[in-house]
Amino acid sequence: MIEPRTLKGFRDYPPELMLPREALIDTARKVFRSYGYPPIDTPALEYTEILLGKMDAGAEIQRQIYRFKDHGDRDVALRFDLTVPFARFAAQYVGKLGTPFKRYHIGPVWRGENTQKGRYREFYQCDFDIIGTTANAADAEIALVIHDLVSALGFDRFTIRVNNRTILNGLLGGLGLADKATDILRSLDKLAKQGPDVVRGEFTTAELSEGQATQVLNLAAARGSNAEVLDRVANEFGTHVAAGVAQLRGLLDICGRAGVPGERLVVDLGICRGLDYYTGTIFETFLGDLPGIGSICSGGRYDDLAGLYTKQKLPGVGASLGLDRLLAAMEELKLLPKTGTPADVLIVQSDAALVGDYQRIARELRAAGLGVELYPDAKKPGVQLQYAESKGYPLAILAGADELKQNVVKLRTLATRSEVVTPLAGLADAVRAVAVKR
Amino acid sequence: MIEPRTLKGFRDYPPELMLPREALIDTARKVFRSYGYPPIDTPALEYTEILLGKMDAGAEIQRQIYRFKDHGDRDVALRFDLTVPFARFAAQYVGKLGTPFKRYHIGPVWRGENTQKGRYREFYQCDFDIIGTTANAADAEIALVIHDLVSALGFDRFTIRVNNRTILNGLLGGLGLADKATDILRSLDKLAKQGPDVVRGEFTTAELSEGQATQVLNLAAARGSNAEVLDRVANEFGTHVAAGVAQLRGLLDICGRAGVPGERLVVDLGICRGLDYYTGTIFETFLGDLPGIGSICSGGRYDDLAGLYTKQKLPGVGASLGLDRLLAAMEELKLLPKTGTPADVLIVQSDAALVGDYQRIARELRAAGLGVELYPDAKKPGVQLQYAESKGYPLAILAGADELKQNVVKLRTLATRSEVVTPLAGLADAVRAVAVKR
Q1: What is the ipTM of this complex?
Q2: I need a labelling partner for A108 at 20 to 30 A (CA). Which of A223, B94, B269, B355 fits?
Q3: Is the pLDDT of residue B84 over 70?
């Protein structure tokens, strides 16, 4: 006998987790599609050379990537994100696809990281991008997609924090710290999670003076209305930040006129994303009710997506929803509905000789858009009703030969154990009245 | 520069392929859910020991499986189907999940096979099963799901061919060939694809007499109404086949009473599925318009799903839709719609200063359930309209500051290049009138 088990850091998705995951994915897809983004998919396995590109031998991903020799002795690996495969894809087909090109991509990625609570070695990413344009209209659209996405996921308290790399670079230039920009931004990226003291400590290591560190941290902590924060930085740093400030003002204006409530978008000079490749607008999204999980949707503008694979410059802007991370957080916080079925009603199999009739009734209800499960065995009604309750069904249908002769069934509300004799002709409406309320 | 390319036997899914793939998956999910089957997912990577079980060292899968050592020096592999992971899953959680347990599972699997037209080393499988019951009602339900699934996929000419392993075993017993059953069934499984001559040749190799081979092939080719075929085999083989005949009769009766047209289900004593583990009902599904691609949905009843991992017997019945194979066949036969967008209408960006207004109009249409893309740059209208045509949009919206002041836009039908001035208040209905017709 082989012990049934999963690998460390991997997990199964039983119905109770998979139903909400599919709901999250469905919602995300609907929003992307409503903006005209089509889906793409790429293989899980790629040449390692493609995935790792010219990455530092010491980079974390080098240790995390699942890499091996395939049957043809090729050096292959499992994708560790969806960005690199998209860069390869874009370089390979840009001539055929043309620009601008928008797409979403939802799928699993693999990283052999040390496992932590809520983090797994296989997890879904959910990316959306517009490439082949430098227009600020595209940056604003990504902000709108994030807004409509997080709203559609059911959250009504959230803020999309926006910044611009050129502002960060401009103000570091204005402070005479341009040569230390990379170190400073890498440290600053830890501000939300680890707090100002940790960041200040790293600034000291990077040989910033006390005064410089204070200036940077003060700017990062600048609060007030978006207009106040942008005015302050524009006044203080002038031409160093003018272009970035104008872009952010334009983005806020577009989103405002498009109908996004003003409080949703917050200029935050303290967000900078660790990744080197962002060059303009930066987004992070925080939930008012789940601040501890960090940004659930992050991204920004980049100058060149696919420079490793093509000479054609592909500027773009996009973001990524942390789908499984969000799901794991909702699971831990017990925010997920407890249901093991996607259907609305269970038909109790009172009499094995009537299975054809039960399935006929079920198929009529299905044709009316309802989900209907028939219990497969003619066990005692109590056993079948217990099954229905354990799956989270609100309703059950019971009928014997006598009822069916009269074209009626008993519709049972499981919570109250009450039954109503219901004509078949009105059954779909009667079930829907309860199913919709759920 | 690294050459952008995929591994041999792997493919990308651009929007033109991914939109129909998502449509197939959506349709399948809707049908499974309408029967109360919830989804599950399992990891792509598992212990090799779990996946290969006690398989022959010479089995084909042993050569095809992607197997390697992970960071913790574990012997791991990519799943090559969804059946083995489901068996492991069922054994691991059956105590918690209880029985009966129904589920669907849609996801990629990997096999390093020799590549052929329409077959890839990464492809989606789509499985649905009921376990924990021996009731014939479950077998009938799988037939109903197959029927509703293939109908919902848009095919109106198809047959679900049904057989029963106990009938096959019974008639081989009746012919005194019980000891050669495995060889005979393996050969018989090639009947549809390779024809009776090939099968007869293999029968001779397996030391069947000319007369025995003819008897088996005659039975496999038996045609007539379902009742005629079943009566014939019942008369000829009596108690050898009585149980299997009764099961098939029961299944046909349930499906008929449930409303499935009689011609959809065809008793075919010639189908037997190569896999050893089927023990009862067997299904194969052939499309009238695509007979060359073989069965697109196959399965059957098994006595014991997870005997490798648990002592608890888990009998069940299920089937698998060959999703990517169906898609590849439809692609080759040019049955796929040529569209690169999931949206209904493109808004031309006539004036960059109006992006906020365009997005406001777009968001109003989106709230009305429509998909609306805004072109990201204020390029010449001709360029933007060419983009719209290349993506397959039927409609474009054009508006300058003057139009917006009057709360109207120009709604352009791309095929006819005609434009109608349309008030914003009626825009959603005007777009929907065309979008729905598509």
Answers
A1: 0.93
A2: B94
A3: yes
